[in-house]
Write a structure and sequence with these properties.
Layout lengths: L5 E6 L4 E6 L10 H16 L5 E6 L17 H24 L4 E5 L2 E3 L1 H7 L3 E5 L3 E3 L13 H9 L1 H10 L3 E2 H6 L5 E3 L4 H13 L3 H14 L4 H15 L3 H12 L9
Parallel strand pairs: 2-3, 3-4, 4-6, 5-7, 6-9
Antiparallel strand pairs: 1-2, 7-8
Helix pairs in contact: 1-2, 3-4, 4-5, 8-9
Amino acid sequence: MTANPLISLFDEKTGVATLTFNRPEVRNAINIAMAEAFLEAVIELKKQQGLRCIVLTGAGKAFMAGGDVASMTGTPEQTQDLINGLLVPLHEAILLLRSMDAPIIAAVKGAAAGAGLSLALIADLIVAEENAKFLIAYNGIGAVPDCGGSWSLPHKIGAARASAMMLLGRQLTATEAKDWGMLTEVASSGSFDETLAAIVKRVATGPTRAFGAFRRLVDQAGGRPLAAQLEAERLAFLKAAETRDFKEGVSAFISKRPAEFSGM
């Protein structure tokens, strides 16, 4: 049995935090201990000075196989308590993660199924190994998506394809998932770490606060009329113009040199 269900590491030099789901003996299936550890780690990241990027990944051969279904065999009351014990901290952690400015990258090897797929989809970018598999899985147990899956999946790939994955149990290969617009990059096993590191470095050295504002604009765009979105963009641009990174970006543009962003 793995002692620590989630490993949280922060590199002060690069500003990159890595959260690793760590129950490889069960393909990182989420239990209550992992859900609570995930929330605790995210709360600490919210306080972290100099945070520039967050990487979500799984230990062993899978990103995450979903919830720990084997534990959902008690009485109806026990099952209700278990589901709440899982989803209340997970959903709070997701909202906290998405409220931060630091971009989120999911590094996926092996299976991302059920809640594992939903948690990968909360990331801004998904980098997958060529043998990765993506499966909604909830239909197999007569359940519905959680961890934001019903929101993020149609946002990424459209309602028709999201319905096909849910109703038909459609499993996607990494190549199919990239073709459908779910993934940022697919890499071979031999080049995965190098590809991931390059993307993490590029994101972590970018204008972090502007990235956070961009995410919020994208998240809110679908529920707003154009006039409201234009006003939100104006206000976000004004706020971005107050940052050190904006001043550095303008200076670098005028000087025809690469910008060196600090995330401030």
